[in-house]
Amino acid sequence: MRLLVTGGCGYIGTVLTERLLLDGHQVIVVDTQWFGNHLAEHPELVVLKQDIRDSRAIPLDGVDTVLHLANIANDPAVELNPELSWEVNVLAGQQLADLAVRAGVRQFIYASSGSVYGVKQEDEVTEDLVLEPISVYNKTKMAAERVLLSYRDEMIVHCVRPATVCGLSPRMRLDVAVNMLTYQALSGGQMTIFGGRQTRPNIHIKDMVGVYQHLLARPDLPTGCYNAGFENLSILEVAELVQTEVPAEIVVTESVDPRSYRQNSDKLCSSGFTPAFTVSDAITDISRSFKEGTLPDSPECFTVDWMRQLGLQ
Q1: Percentage of the chain with pLDDT > 90?
Q2: Residues 21 and 44: beta-carbon distance below 8 Å
């Protein structure tokens, strides 16, 4: 198939693009490359350094499926420039979907976020619960979902609500929970956690890629939203898992982030997807890479700081 991947040079997008090429697809990547381009050249790969807000220049002729990952990711990054975030996370997605319909694209897979649910008291969060986003980032993802699902009569639309992703990528992120705590333990012998009791779902980056592969192979699945999170752990439990791999002190401080929820992904699993990797696998991989001296830890690995350096605030 001929695929368009927005954000294909990102943390998840890089691993996804590599996997799609191995699967034999033709891939067009559209990415601003604010965080670099770590993709190797490939005869079936075209990489365009381009802002998705300039949607008219995005090549959609002959594209079967759009995998839309490009966004301003996480709460602190969005707070740097909320106006930019609404433009990228919502308006650009709407323009892209409109052009995709006109070009005859049959399937649109959107990377939303499990954080759209906000704070939930239910034992498990399922796709049918009311969305109550509490941050600007969460609100942009909810709005984008609603916009994209409005095209459901014109193409297949699958919105993925991922848990917090962990694990290695050539375009590494060291500012997401598991990766951050593992890096803190390895580099400084100490992990600082805020609160510690908040429960969050997690997903290994290889399983995250697997979810996109699964949806790509199953355009027959009903249009709608699918949770993708398989280990609901408190921040303290994550730190304790890191301790089993890396001896390090845990320092607990007060938290101002109340988000806590347990994600249920039965809908996705009942469609035939089975996760194969764990948080512990991610910790082990990061630890091994650090010890081998191959773990990326450049300034680009810390989203907010790097965006400030780029003048995007």
Answers
A1: 89
A2: yes
Structure confidence at residue 84 (pLDDT): 94
CA-derived radius of gyration, the chain:
19
Q: Return the pLDDT at 261.
A: 80
β-pair type (156-162, 224-228): parallel
Q: Which domains does the chain have, with CATH numbers?
A: 2-309 (3.40.50.720)
3-state secondary structure (DSSP) of residue 163:
coil
Note the pLDDT tens digit of each residue in 12-37.
999 999 999 999 999 999 999 999 99
Q: What are phi and psi of 199, to 5 degrees?
A: -100, 130
Measure the CA–CA gap between 105 and 63, rounded to whole angstroms: 6
Exposure letters 9-43 (e unless 16+ CB within 10 A, then b)? bbbbbbbbbbbbbeeebbbbbbbbbbbbebbeeee
Rounded to two decimals, the pTM is 0.96
